[in-house]
Amino acid sequence: SVDCSFSQGVCDWKQEADDDFDWNPADRDRGDGYYMAVPAFVGHKKDTGRLKLLLTELKPKSSYCLIFSYRLAGERVGKLRVFLANKRTAPVWEQNKGNDERWRTGKIEIFQGVETTNSVTFESERGKGKTGEIGVDNVILISGLCPED
Predict the structure, then answer these.
(1) Can you give the residue ranges of the MAM domain (predicted)?
(2) 3-state secondary structure 92-132
(3) Of 37, 48, 20, 110, which Cα lies nearest the Cα of 74?
(4) What is residue 138's predicted lDDT score, i.e. its pLDDT?
(5) Residue ranges making up the domain that contains 11
(6) Are the C-beta atoms of 53 and 82 separated by less than 8 Å?
(7) For 68-115, how does the pLDDT look when each residue is reduced to its tens digit (9 = 90+)?
(8) Which CATH number does the domain housing residue 114 bear?
(9) In a domain, 106, yes or no
(10) For residue 76, which of 49, 72, 119, 129 is within the disulfide window of CB 3.0 to 4.6 Å?
(11) How many CB atoms lie under 10 A from the CB of residue 108?
């Protein structure tokens, strides 16, 4: 398993240059490091910010599971989507509202065929709301299929 979390992870994260805003580090409540967040007041409705995880070591013809914590806090805060590099047109995962401010777990299966996935992009799209944030934390890549809950 590969720890891609932001505080002490070993992965290569890049802010995309041709989007509308950047993700920013935010301190965890427990004070043990930080997560990446987009506050609700950044940008305008429908603006997007993309944070890309570069994956260079994935073996062809194998399965991986990307597990991450996320939260959508605040009314009409927007959408969080995840895209795989070889399927850029449609998100493989999308969430558009949180019922509360709790952190939840997302899981995405990555199947390496002949074409390998060389990056995963977390995209935040702004909603109408002015309070709250979209956050991502504890990103881990494990080899094999995603575990059942």
Answers:
(1) 2-148
(2) CEEECCCCCCCCEEEEEEEECCCCCCCEEEEEEEECCCCCC
(3) 37
(4) 94
(5) 2-143
(6) no
(7) 999 999 989 999 999 998 666 789 999 997 678 899 999 999 888 777
(8) 2.60.120.200
(9) yes
(10) 129
(11) 17
